[in-house]
Amino acid sequence: MKIGIIGLGDVGSGIARKLAAAGYEVKVNNRKQPDELALKAKELGATPATLEEVVKDVDIIFICVPAIAIPLLPKDFLKNVPPDVIIVETTNYYPFRDGGIEELEKGKVESVWVAEQLGRPVIKAFNELPAYALEHLGKAKGEDGRIAIAVSGDDEKAKQIVSRLINDTGFDAVDAGSISESWRHQPGTPAYCTELNAAELKKALAEAVKEKSSSTREFAINKIIKSNPPPSHEEIVKLHRSLFTENAQKS
Ligand SMILES: NC(=O)c1ccc[n+]([C@@H]2O[C@H](COP(=O)([O-])OP(=O)(O)OC[C@H]3O[C@@H](n4cnc5c(N)ncnc54)[C@H](OP(=O)(O)O)[C@@H]3O)[C@@H](O)[C@H]2O)c1
């Protein structure tokens, strides 16, 4: 299976490295000059590609750029991509970083907005797991304490394929429903940044309250931004767990 990844920050790089190590053919793209992109691609075990090349002749395209960058992607960059190519997006909306995006401020589901911007259906996955965990906390299938990742989307076959990829990166996959339900793993929900196993994640997804998520997201990110020194990965997960009674007991 061939993979194209756009955006090589912490999450895009983590996905690229894990999938390349699992034997997938991975092409990558960011905004850097070709020589810098080539170095990064080599480090990840991937092939550097222009935006045109990264979406060509692949089975799955990962879009791993911040929400603010989604409308800035060239309008027609997916125009020659066949409809059966799966688009996975990892975006989390943070107003302090992404600016106020009016529709998201009004409560539009983030992946629904991304799909509208791209003019293509998307699968949401890998968004609620911190990049640190993606890089360091994967485990073999069946091992105790394996962390799970939520997958949302309207195409059941595509979700199954993405779930297999998740498994290959060292995590269990949990079906979180349709794309309109994908708010259940956006920032400010019990699933977000809490590193749960499959049973815990299913419960967290079911217990999410949409109306509370943006205020909870803001509370958490303000604490993180104001922390001096910056919080460790463990402290960030502990903070997110502490926002929800059930998960607080795990911290
Ligand atoms: N970091 C995490 O732990 C994590 C985990 C899950 C989900 N997410 C979400 O995933 C998204 C990406 O997160 P991140 O932390 O990886 O972001 P990041 O570190 O800021 O990296 C963003 C990447 O996107 C690239 N980019 C931006 N605009 C682009 C464009 N127009 N065309 C091509 N590439 C472009 C940047 O390119 P350059 O390198 O060339 O600047 C950079 O490689 C965010 O919405 C974030 O909330 C993050």
From TrEMBL:
It comes from the Eukaryota. Residues 2-93 form the Pyrroline-5-carboxylate reductase catalytic N-terminal domain. Gene3D superfamilies: NAD(P)-binding Rossmann-like Domain. It holds the Pfam family F420_oxidored. Keywords: Oxidoreductase. This is Pyrroline-5-carboxylate reductase catalytic N-terminal domain-containing protein. It comes from Sphagnum jensenii. The lineage of its organism: Eukaryota, Viridiplantae, Streptophyta, Embryophyta, Bryophyta.
